[in-house]
Sequence to fold (396 residues):
Amino acid sequence: MSNDIKAAILKRLEAIRGPNLEGDIVSLGLVSDIFVQDGRAMFSITVPADDAENLDPLRRAAQRATLEIEGITEAFVTLTAESAGARMQSPVAATAGRTIPTPPASTSGPRSGGAAPPASAGDPLPGIKNVIAVASGKGGVGKSTITANLALGLAALGLRVGVLDADIYGPSQPRLFGASGKPGKGEGRTIIPMEAHGLKLMSMGFMVDESTPMVWRGPMVGSAITQMLREVAWGELDVLVVDMPPGTGDAQLTMAQQVPLSGAVIVSTPQDLALIDARKGVAMFQKTSVPLLGIVENMSYFLCPTCGDRSDIFGTGGAQQEAEKLGVPFLGAVPLHMAIRELSDRGNPPVVAEPDSAYAALFRDIAGQVWSGLQGRASSGRKPPRIVVEPVGETA
Fold:
């Protein structure tokens, strides 16, 4: 049925002329793979970078044509511009006969209905007082676990808290919070976030199956993050905690440019290899004028559940020493504890599952320090940074 709808959409799109009025957008290869799910159709159209701002009528025409298809209730059509000479390549992969969905590649239009201008870069999110990013230079350091328990620790202070899972390629927050299902549709083009343990949640993990790999380009990741930031009915929040993907790429730059971040928390393990990448994360936020709220040393040590002995598996104190060297607050050392892992896997984070435990108290202490760091930092009105990408030599 989905393939029939895709074929019908492509047939309608063949009537839309290309940017230079030569040929149609389908035969010119400008239409990305079309993703259809629950009556929603999403695809992008590649246009020349120099003309992108003037081609919104083309996008609207494609959107109207898509909405005319029986079974389509929403159409999300966007424009994407590639460098001169680049050809459109549909980021689609087939694995065991399954097609991996392709998201829109920009936020140049609404999800459905008539045209609406996009929000300006750096505009504050309505109703949200503070936005903080939890980041790491590399994966596997427990950043998502820290994010979930930090958010719950902030909520324990009596704050209204939301969590945005911006790790598009590996969304973990649905599992950590034990949340499942599909977000609802609000007024106009808004999405109703999920809720768990008193927090509002949004994640790409609610949109696609957990086993579906996300084969997306950088601009598409930025588009998805922007949509989850600005088209979700977050309501009134004191803090929105954003679980960032590892690294210093498109997602991080999107966050730095799209919203005035109140601050960032860096997560690292003690060993030198992780600290090398943590330094990159710190440097990136410093270059984009985002305040550093501090560094958390995760998996700092192992506590034997039988004898209670401590083992410094990854070394110890590395993140604290790095924080002192960089002049960044050290927020605390979180142990490698079986209860943290077990409770997280069950979707029942330690802060709410075992609130009287020592590690829950540690997470609440970290949350208290983060909240103290946010006080006095005016998030509204911060201009988005001017980001300059300088060429660097290749490294081994």
Q: What stands out?
A: The first strand starts at residue 35 and ends at 37. The CA atoms of residues 250 and 257 lie 10 Å apart. The chain has a mean pLDDT of 76. The radius of gyration is 22 Å.
